[in-house]
Amino acid sequence: MLNRHFSIYLVAYILPAAVGFFAVTAYTRLLTPAEYGVYVVGISLAGILGAIFFAWIKLSVSRYQAMSAEVDFRGTAMVAFALTVAVLCATTPLVFLFRNDLSVGLLLASMFVAIMANAVDVGQEFERAKLRPYRFAAISIVRSVSGVGFGLLGIWLGWGGLGLLAAFGLGSLAGIILNLLGDRTRIARFQRSQFVQLARYGLPLTLAGLSIAVYSACDRLIVAYLLGKDAAGIFGVAADLPRQFMVMIASSVAAATVPLVFRSLSDKNIETTRE
User: Fold this and answer.
1) Is residue 3 exposed (0-12), middle (13-18) or buried (19+ Cβ within 10 Å)?
2) Burial of residue 101 (number of CB atoms within 10 Å: 0-12, 13-18, 19+)
3) Three-state SS letters, the chain
4) How confident is the model over 189-198, as pLDDT tens digits?
5) Which of 51, 75, 120, 155 could form a disulfide linkage to 210, CB 3.0–4.6 angstroms apart?
6) pTM for the complete prediction?
7) Residue 37 in contact with residue 233, Cβ under 8 Å?
8) Side-chain half-sphere of 241: how many Cα atoms within 13 Å?
9) What residue segments make up the domains of the chain, in order of their start?
10) Rounded mean pLDDT for each run of 10 residues along the chain, 275 residues in total
11) CA distances (Å), 92 to each of 41, 96, 97, 124, 164, in order?
């Protein structure tokens, strides 16, 4: 099972990576470095916002839903996500107390990307946890292709870097819709005990997720702050291409392995899980 799942997940990451390679090639020829720099900065901010506000939900779902196929955490996860979105919308504008020169449009676009991207990622965690790699792959490919289509449309309309951010969010929205329409099973209701369980496990891990997000994004933000958005656009392309190829293989292994490990540890013994 592990080898079969790894092969499917590898396709689920390779095809979007190939689409992304085409997209970067097109974007960097259709946009100026400054316009692409706006996109790079916005994606970096969205990554940090996602790590602060939503990582705890994804990490908790990947564990507890994988451990028990009979229990449905979707209703509780939806309520947790909605509450987190409310907190995000209420607190993120406070950043203007520290940086009043930040573009309102850029911040709003980053918030939109953070919400949409993490919503589809939470849905993908359920697909992984329920051992449904084919649906995971379909959603991943649709998300990638639609995002590029929206991106090219945004550039054609003259929306620049903000248009690319909106396109990324709309591509994720397409993945969310496919996820909801493709799963016709009844969603269980919100349960307070499940919410406490998710929060108790996931919230402490937010610090780890935040450190990874800051590590991944701070270089782009530093370049943008010190050298300008033109330099951030050039730097972002140079940094993202090799990172995509490395993450593509590692993510495929993790996507196949993690839910099987949790399921094995829950149903069997430590020796079987370790093997």
Assistant:
1) exposed
2) exposed
3) CHHHHHHHHHHHHHHHHHHHHHHHHHHHHHCCHHHHHHHHHHHHHHHHHHHHHCHHHHHHHHHHHHHCCCCCCHHHHHHHHHHHHHHHHHHHHHHHHCCCCCCHHHHHHHHHHHHHHHHHHHHHHHHHHCCCHHHHHHHHHHHHHHHHHHHHHHHHCCCHHHHHHHHHHHHHHHHHHHHHHHCCCCCCCCCHHHHHHHHHHHHHHHHHHHHHHHHHHHHHHHHHHHHCHHHHHHHHHHHHHHHHHHHHHHHHHHHHHHHHHHHHHHHCCHHHHHC
4) 999 999 999 9
5) 51
6) 0.85
7) yes
8) 11
9) 2-274
10) 76 85 89 91 90 91 84 93 95 78 87 96 91 91 94 93 94 94 86 92 82 80 88 85 74 81 80 81
11) 16, 9, 10, 25, 21
> Do residues 177 and 189 lie in contact, with contact meaning Cβ atoms separated by under 8 Å?
no
Instruction: Quickly tell me which residue has 């430590």 as its tokens.
Output: 270
Centre a 10 Å sphere on the Cβ of residue 131 and count the other Cβ atoms it contains. 15
